[in-house]
Amino acid sequence: MGRQVAQVHQMIRIQNIYYMLAYAFQVLREQGYRDVATEEFTNTAELCAAILEQGVKTQLKRGLGRAYVDRTEALSSPRGKIELSESVKTSALLRRQLVCDYDEFSVDTPMNQILKATIKVLIGSDIAKARKKGLRQLLVYFSDVSDIDIETVDWHMRFDRNNQTYRMLMNVCWLVVEGLLQTQSDGTTRMMDFFDDQRMYHLYEKFILGYYKREHPELKAGAPNIKWALDDGFEDMLPSMRSDITLTRGGTVLIIDAKYYSHTTQVHFDRHSVHSSNLYQIFTYVKNKEAELERERKPHVVSGMLLYALTDEEAHPDGVYQMSGNQISVKTLDLGQPFHVIRNQLDDIVEDHFITSTKVIST
Q1: Which keywords label this protein (predicted)?
Q2: Residues 230, 279: contact at Cβ < 8 Å?
Q3: 231-247: buried (b, 16+ CB within 10 Å) or exposed (e) per residue?
C-alpha cells in the first residue's frame, strides 16, 4: 500500500495542501493565518502543527469554549443532587462530606480535550523544535482540561453557534489523528509525511466544492441529492445519489465527481481505460438529473465530469465523450503545480461549461 499512496502524494506540493484546507475551511483565509500561507513546510505534520498553533492562539483570545460538565465528588458544601448511598459507601459522611452530582460550567469539554491530546501528539512527532516549543507554551492554558486517549475519540460532533469556531480545529485534529498517525508492527506510532488516501479523498472533494463556492459566486455550488427518475415512485431499497459537486447557472448544470485514487485508470490486457464503475456512476447522475429538469419543461444542458487527482502514472484519463445526448468528460487536476496553475484549471472548467453551454441553450 505504501507504494500506491506515494504515487498520488509525491505529486502534491505541501503548500497546495494548505490551499486545499483553506478552501475547505474558509476560516483559514482570515488575517491570523496569513503567516501560515507564506511558510514552506517539509511535511504535512509541520503544516498541521502551524495551523493548529495559530488556531489555538486565536481561540485563546476568544477564550476556551466552556460547557456544562457532569461532576460527581464528595463536597463539604453540598450542591446539586446528593447521593446518600454513595456517601455511605465511600465513608464521606465520616469526613463530614456528601457525594454530590452537579453540573459545572467548565473548559474541560470533549473538544478542548481533543485539542490538548492532538497538541501532545504533534509535540512528539518529527516537527521543528521551534514549533514544538510554541505548542508546549499553549499547553499551559489547558491545565484544567483532562487528558484522554486520542485513539478512542468519537469524531461525530455537533456544532452550533457556541462552538462554531472549533469546527476547523476539530477537522485538523481529525486529519492529524486519523490521517497522519500510522501504527508500526511493534505497536508504536509514527507520523506519515502525508494524509492517508481516505483523508485526502475527503479533503480533495471539500476543496473543489469550497473553491467554486468562493471564487464563482455567479454559480450555485452545492452537493445535493439527485432524485431517481422513477416511473411509479417506488424507491424502497434504492441507494441515495449524492453528488460531490453540482454547479448550476440557469438551465446549465455540471455534476462533478471528485476522485482521489492511487490509480486513475484500470488496466485490462495492457489497455488503460477509465474506471468503469466511476463512468457508470456519473452517467447515472447525469441522466437522472436531466430527467428531473425535463419534467420541469425548462431549457437545460446537463453535463458530467470525473475529476481525478493526477498521479505519476504514464497514462492518465483525459477525454470528452458525447453519450446519449449528454457530455461526459474525464479530466485530471495536477496538484503538483503552483496553485495559480490549479486555479486556472478549475476556472477553465467553468469557462468551458458555462460560457459555451449558455450559448447552446440561447440558440
Answers
A1: Endonuclease, Hydrolase, Nuclease
A2: no
A3: eeeeeeeeeebebbbbb
The percent of residues in the chain predicted with pLDDT above 70, rounded, is: 87
Q: Fill in the amino acid letter for 292.
A: E
Rounded distance between C-alpha atoms, residue 99 and residue 97, angstroms? 7
C-alpha angle 35/36/40, rounded to 5°? 110
Rounded CA separation 196/181 (Å): 9
pLDDT tens for 43-99 read 888 999 999 999 999 999 999 999 888 878 888 888 878 888 888 888 887 888 888
pLDDT (mean) for 153-175:
91
Contact criterion met (CB below 8 Å) for 264 and 326: no
Ramachandran class of 285: left when φ > 0, alpha when ψ lies in -120 to 50, beta otherwise: alpha
pTM greater than 0.85: no
The DSSP code for 355 is: T
CA–CA–CA angle 157, 131, 156 (5° rounding)? 5
Which residues in 325-337 are b (16+ Cβ under 10 Å) and which e?
Answer: ebbbbbbbbebbb
